[in-house]
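Checklist before submission:
- one chain only
- standard amino acids only
- sequence pasted in full

Submission:
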Amino acid sequence: MKFENSKYSKLLGYKKVDFPFGTIYITRYFVISELNEGIHVDYTIASELINAFSEDIRKGIKVGYIANRINSYSFEPQLWLDFNNEYDFLVASAIVTYNDFSYLNSSLEKHFFKKSLKRCHSLDEAIEWMSNLNEFSKEFKHE
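Returned file contents:
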């Protein structure tokens, strides 16, 4: 399910940012990506996404990341290691998978990400899990 078709798009304030390779939705506590079919996420694409948050990173803002994998695309797991070494603004990550192959790929990625990474079968599951993290749960409940 796309974020804009979910109940959360009506409950959470968000900003939509379109890129040539996909769309991201920025909420107060987490970012949701919905990348295009068939792309390969490499360092260039990851850098472009990170640059979209450079001001927030400099301010020390912490967020969660949800990869809503409604489309099939490839991802270099090594990017998680590079990301862990260069940045510290992510609290946790969730990967929403819609088929067994995508779930297996996310299992591989889990080994490279040093923080909490949850594999989910629905966008609702990912958002609920993210909103209940200690870093967000108190504030999230009061909105």
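Reviewer check: The helical segments are 8-11, 43-51, 54-58, 78-86, 100-110, 123-131, 134-141.
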